[in-house]
Amino acid sequence: MWRNVLAGLILSTGVALVHADTTQQPVMPAAYQQSIEQWRAARVARLTAPDGWLSLIGLEWLQEGANKVGTASDNDIILQAGPAHLGVITLDKSGQVHITLDKDSHATVDGKEVEQATLIDDAHVSGDASPTKVSFGPASFYVIDREGRKALRVKDADAATRKHFLGIDYFPIDPSWRIVADWVPFDPPHDLKMGSVIGTIDTVKVPGKAVFTRDGHTYELLPYQEEPGGELFFVLADRTSGHETYGAARFLYAALPQNGKVVLDFNKAYNPPCSFTPFATCPLAPPENRLDLRITAGEKKYRGGH
Fold it and tell me: What is the DSSP letter of 46?
């Protein structure tokens, strides 16, 4: 899921990797700076896409039984965009979700004009498939599942958050924050409790820990993998959190370890969707990943934050 927050660019710049506890300068600082600027551009392009995180206009939890949906006040779920009466969404006792569209809604399901359909949520799609998408004009929604609770994730290409995006502020690019950490594998993987902004707690499998030094002090970070064989995903906080950076967490991806090392490039630490919108369900940095360190790299707090 969170892998889709940005386009993870694989950079092959030939830049020498810099350990945090050395003053060695990168061999090609200009190439490294260009690579980070390209990464930032791709990140902003994905964020501001018509269906990107800035297009969110609703997170509407479904109740068991029939849920009337639309913009009119007599609906059970009142949308911020779309027809007055879109239709009825039924959540049955088994967790299945079904929609019957109003005949005048002009809505489509996965691009098709149908009267009714079963809606597959984001937790029950297979492979590279996407959850069932209901579209109406520039807006749409699909169903998400969070520990058995079902909600509509509603997006609108004309959302004010997208139209009035203020851009992202950054710390200066600093190659010293591209750190080669030691990788300590766990066999078997450890369990880690991950809270979220909506109050859920997930248990994730941690395959190991990244250990690095900065200014003579040693720090550890625990990642998990969102899919088998996928990149390492770190949800972290530090002494800038809540001040210069978003308080709940920042995210960081890293390629899989090689030869007992893993590269942590904090210049690519970025804000979760929850820093831009109240309609996301982001994980919180666990206590194990709250570092007593000022990570002055990556994205700063969003000026237009809610």
Answer: H
